[in-house]
Amino acid sequence: MSLTTITVDEAKKRLADGAVLVDVRENDEVARERIPGARHAALSGLTSASADGASAIIFHCKSGGRTAANAGK
Q1: Do the beta carbons of residue 54 and residue 16 sit within 8 Å?
Q2: Residue 54 CB: number of other CB atoms within 10 A?
Q3: Most C-beta atoms within 10 A of its C-beta, which of 3, 11, 17, 18?
Q4: What is the pTM of this model?
């Protein structure tokens, strides 16, 4: 699976077009700062992500490293 890094502006555009934002940071990170409208699914427990008819899924972690390293999930 290939991942594409996108800008905040591109993410906003895709969200407006029906994408879903999934925050894969761990519980302690999310407790410190939440992203309004994001679904939380800690990467450590993630087995799959459901798009529920969304046009795309956007994954967010602190730096992108965890998302890239676990793209196969």
Answers
A1: no
A2: 17
A3: 11
A4: 0.80
